[in-house]
Amino acid sequence: MCRSAALSRRKLWQHAAAAALTAMLSLLSACALKSPPPPSELREQTLSHAPLPEQWSANIVSEGAVQDGWVNNFNDPALKSLVAEALEHNTDLRVAAARVEQAAGYARVAGAAIYPAVNLLARGGGPLSGDGSGLEGAWLNASWELDLWGRVRAGRAAATAQYESTEADYIYARQALAAAVTKSWFLAIEARLQRSIAEEMVVAGERLVDVARQRLRVGADDEYNVVVAEASLGGFRDTLLQLEFGYQQAVRALEVLLGRYPSATLLTAEQLPALPPPIPAGLPSELLERRPDVIAAERRVATAFYGITEAKAARLPKISLTASVSTISSELFVLQDRDNPVWSAGASLLAPIFQGGALKAQVEIRTAEQKQALAEYARIGLRAFNDVETAMYSELMLRSREQVLNRAVADNKRALELAEVRYRVGATDLRAISQQQLDLLSVQTTLLRVRSEARVQRVNLHLALGGSFDIPPPAEPAPTEKSASDSGATQP
Q1: CATH code of residue 274
Q2: DSSP 366-392
Q3: Is 212:225 a contact under the CB 8 Å cutoff?
Q4: 113 CB burial (10 A radius; 0-12, 13-18, 19+)
Q5: Global pTM?
Q6: Residue 28 scores a pLDDT above 60
Q7: Rounded to the nearest 5 degrees, what angle is found at the Cα of 262, between the Cα atoms of 197 and 461?
Q8: How far apart are CA 306 and CA 385, in angstroms?
């Protein structure tokens, strides 16, 4: 009789526990978290005033999807080595990597609240106990908040989205660093070539001074032309000193990116690499889903979205389940009227009644943060499109300018040759030659600047399109029937 009653009570408790678990799961499923708006909906919400074209406006690119491994396009082994060195030793990138690790830790901390918390307290007794009571025992406690309203899950989702945003920022930082190293490499080569042009002009100026002095000795010229030639030579020498300083600064800036001491000892190449052919740029509609900085902005919108959910759920009651077991004994006195061990279970409810408007203010703050995240997403998205269009149009204009300047350099060289001939026969003075030298120097330096800028804009285009400088590993070929049979695999 007693045994059957005990079995009946056990079944009753099992049914009650099953019913409670089913009800709890049903309630949790009913309170499932809503998902943040997808990227397509974000684009419609934030960029409705800027409809996307089907093709890029400055269409100077080839058709096809954006490709990775753009550093190899310049066919410069030294550049590849410098990029790899910067990725390993650049201090700013290490700071960004540490931020990713921190965000991952915060995400794990936020996710830990989903699970029950279990704590153990134990102490030893005897004469050496701290309070002299001789008590010894252990206390095991477990508590679990029923996330009925999704507050804990929203916090975990927000922390996860923040981690994904930080990770995307790190990926973009790697791409930006590779682009910065590449552009600094080109600018350092340009500075070296500009210095070489100035050195040639100094040599030409010295030769012109010698000619003027010889003509003065034979009485074919006066001292005025000698002074003019020397003054022109002094200007060329000053220009050379300025370009030498610029070259040193360019090399130091590159060394800092590499994580080296800025000693200006890095040896640069003697010529700029050839400009690669046009690259595939994909479609404008694909850009926002490919650029890491835009992806990071989209994840920040998701973070703010979950933040609102968390703040709203914080205004609702918190229900927690608790269970504990304890055992206590003493060598000094007898504990009467006590079962050992002691089991207990219960539940608690904490409902915010009056917080002075703090919880409502938290919802308003989170809502404002979401508005800010949406505006930031739109700003970064428009900037991404502008980066692409600007880089494309800049390269288009630089191509045209290079053609014009090539012709101008040839014309100025010919004009300088004619001016020197006229001076030797006494048909003109040195002022015409000096002016022609200045004109040639100006055109040559401008042409070199345009050539370097064309390569810089190509790097900007790669970065704007979101293409990675890394080369993805080759995909492993799918096993054929022959290879599968050779490896001993069983055929279906």
Answers
A1: 1.20.1600.10
A2: HHHHHHHHHHHHHHHHHHHHHHHHHHH
A3: yes
A4: middle
A5: 0.82
A6: no
A7: 65
A8: 28
